[in-house]
Amino acid sequence: MLLEHKVALITGASRGIGKAIALELGKQGASIAGTATTENSAHQIDQYLQDANIKGMGLVMDVNHVEQINAGIDRVQKSLGGISILVNNAGITRDNLLARMKDEEWDAIMQTNLKSVFQLSRAVLRAMMKARSGRIINISSVVGATGNAGQTNYAAAKAGMVGFSKSLAKEIGSRHITVNCVAPGFIDTDMTRALSPDQQQALIQHIPLGRLGRPEDVAAAVAFLASPAADYITGTTLHVNGGMYMD
Amino acid sequence: MEIAEIEQRIKKIVAEQLGVNEAEIKNESSFVNDLGADSLDTVELVMALEEEFECEIPDEQAEKINTVQEAIDYVASNASQ
Hints:
CATH class of chain A: Alpha Beta
Strand content of chain B: under 5%
Distance between the termini of chain A: 32 Å
GO molecular function (chain A): 3-oxoacyl-[acyl-carrier-protein] reductase (NADPH) activity; NAD binding
CATH superfamily of chain A: NAD(P)-binding Rossmann-like Domain
Number of strands of chain B: 0
Strand order of the largest sheet of chain A: 3-2-1-4-5-6-7
Number of helices of chain A: 9
Mean pLDDT of chain B: 92
CATH class of chain B: Mainly Alpha
Order of helices and strands of chain B: HHHH
Mean pLDDT of chain A: 96
Order of helices and strands of chain A: EHEHEHEHEHHEHHHE
Oligomer: heterodimer
Number of strands of chain A: 7
CATH superfamily of chain B: ACP-like
Radius of gyration of chain B: 11 Å
Number of domains of chain A: 1
Helix content of chain B: 55-70%
Shape of chain B: globular
Organism (chain A): Nitrosomonas halophila
Low-confidence stretches of chain B: none
CATH topology of chain A: Rossmann fold
Number of domains of chain B: 1
Low-confidence stretches of chain A: none
CATH architecture of chain B: Orthogonal Bundle
Protein name (chain A): 3-oxoacyl-[acyl-carrier-protein] reductase
Strand content of chain A: 5-15%
Structural class of chain A: alpha/beta
Domain Ketoreductase (chain A): 6-218
Enzyme class (chain A): oxidoreductase
Largest sheet of chain B: none
């Protein structure tokens, strides 16, 4: 198994893409720590890991609070060992046209989708530098590359992750730690189910592969970047979008 | 803790961290100029000192630790044991 003896921390793992990533990395042999914002969701993570016979734990971590990030990482490292794979997946949307966007909508996205990536990466770096190996994988978005009306905040944060990842990749490449992004297109999750059937149909017209993506499509890309096969890949963005945007 | 013991432990850490021979490390050695450390090495070195001596070295103090002797002095006056 490719990821045996690895410990993976995945934020926002109770459902959707995060859950698929947790299950895929677990299937490859990694121990999994999956975060959620409520006790109930953390328990659901425990449950699905157990059902899939994967070693690991769900834990409550609100990525908006640095104390919770640091305490959570501490707990994971004590019970599962040093974190070797960090997947920054937790994210929210606060869509609005810019002319109507409130400061709170902008700030919430920057805090949850971008600042947390910085704080989580910083918190796992010590163990990774010591181990002289590690993988940081940030879940960006196709809209970070293409832009999307109504999502100036979300697109800015997702594009910000790409610049962050390239810079950090340069900083810590000498320690054999790789930093990459995976940029999903339109994936069938609760987030995109908020779109009307007409909107979904219109979107599919622009996807050469003719369907929305599945969370498992994204998870497979993450598992590849986490594996030894991706040892020489850093600072890049892997687009998983059915061809709707080609880099 | 004896100064000699601090010195010995620090030299051991520096040797491990920077991949240099302990015999090459003098008290007046500068991490960057004499021992070939880059900026990330110096950050790691401070992290290693914090761990070894169970203390937290604030950034503004860490910036002033550029030589082996400066590290010894810092630990001697700040570490608890």
